[in-house]
Amino acid sequence: MSGGKKPAPKQDKKDVITILLVDDIPETRENIKKLLAFEPDFKVVGTAGTGREGVELAKKETPDIIIMDINMPDMDGLQATNLITKQVPTAAVIIMSVQNDPDYMRRAMLAGARDFLSKPINMDEIYNTIRTVYKNHEPIRKQYEALESGMLDSLRALSDESTLEGDRAGHVITLYSPSGGAGTTTLATSLASGLMKENIKVLLIDADLQFADVGTFLNLQSQTTIVEVVEDVADLDVDLFENVVTTHDSGLKVLIGPPRPEFADQVTANPENVATIIEKIRNQYDFIIIDTSNRLDETLLNIFERSSKIILVGTPTLVSVKNMRLVLDLFDQIGYDPNKTWIALNHVWEDNKGKSATITPEKVESYLKRPVIARIPKVDERVLLSAINRGVPVIASDRRQDRPPIKQLVELSNYIFEQFMADEEEEQDKNDTPKKRGGIASFLGR
């Protein structure tokens, strides 16, 4: 403990600040705990070595202050902070990190942290920060103390209205291409972004389990991926899922794919794993958009089975059209309703007269006997690379939405939204009930 520290002010027992320490390094936890013990107004009520443990201890101990490391193995400090601020609002979180750049600080504040400290920790600084944060958080603590008189239940009911199980339609839209380079990830990220409208909840799942690209396209990093979710898929906590998935700056929720190809086996060990996740959380979202690889296997077929719509993505070339025909033949053999599949053509070339320079979309429609709902034009690759480098979906990469391919991507997302929302209203009018069965249940008659 450094010298020159001012003595702590005398405080009543009721003003003792209770503290929870969350850090994956035992030595760091113990050192901070010992130094905090010298302060008569501090009391460490628990320590945790992982983000998940920190969340559970926060709910159990309801401390005044939580000192949270940002880098941890199972759930990073930002995700844990986001969860704690919702479940234990009386607790104020102080984030610690060896990274002290403005982006980390901004992300910490967005997650709900009240202050940010850089490692190695200066103890005088941490003493002052704890007391300042505790004082500034006092109005929130008093508010919840007042609510304990009987108003708390009403507040919880209001805050839970939008997350009640079964509250959302759960439309699952899977994008798949049997040929590489068709641009499924570009379409999936843009479609998910385009479907985000007022009061509409959207989840994007990266089910390309060997070479997941959604995180790269959206510049997302998270220690919680689909690999960690499937570890406890049988007992998946729906409320916890909402907080462990990654949140893009736009507000889009994203379940990131495995960080390395070899981790795919942990997900596909049970081919039902991804499908089980979908079934458990689908009614928490209005739309779930799934990006996939071009590998046809049992895991993907299980995803198809749970899908409300399958958008078959191709290009207007002989090889791509031939492969799409093979996939549609497979769907016919399985017994899928033809209306379950739509076609989206990407990289459509046009000459100056507006005529296609390759196979026309009309010929593709005629040959595949499925509607082509989107014709995304071929554009300068720099347009796509610019969006990726900025970590934004192509559909949101330019304010002018009349430029290709943004115009066509907006039209696609609006078309899908209108199709499903019209179905919602028709079904609700028919049954005269506030809720309807969403997604694949309506297609399979379940």
Description:
This protein has 446 residues and is of the alpha/beta class. 43% of the residues lie in helices and 16% in strands. Helix 16 links the parallel strand 12 and strand 13. The longest helix has 26 residues. The termini are far apart.
Short description:
This protein has 446 residues and is of the alpha/beta class.
The description of the largest β-sheet is:
8 strands, mixed
Judged by helices, strands and strand pairing, the structural class is: alpha/beta
- Strand order in the sheet with the most strands: 8-9-7-10-6-11-12-13
N-end to C-end Cα span: 66 Å
Which spans have pLDDT < 50 for at least 5 consecutive residues?
Answer: 1-13, 150-165, 432-446
The count of DSSP E runs of length 2 or more, i.e. the number of strands, is 13
Query: What value does the Rg take, in angstroms?
Result: 25 Å
- Shape descriptor reads elongated
Average pLDDT reading: 82
Proportion of helical residues? 40-55%
Topology:
Blueprint: E1 17-22, H1 26-36, E2 42-48, H2 51-61, E3 65-69, H3 77-87, E4 92-97, H4 102-111, E5 115-118, H5 123-136, H6 138-147, H7 152-160, E6 171-176, H8 184-194, E7 202-207, H9 214-217, H10 226-231, H11 238-244, E8 246-247, E9 253-255, H12 264-268, H13 273-281, E10 287-292, H14 298-306, E11 309-314, H15 318-334, E12 341-348, H16 361-368, E13 372-377, H17 381-390, H18 406-431, H19 440-444
Parallel strand pairs: 1-2, 1-3, 3-4, 4-5, 6-10, 6-11, 7-9, 7-10, 11-12, 12-13
Antiparallel strand pairs: 8-9
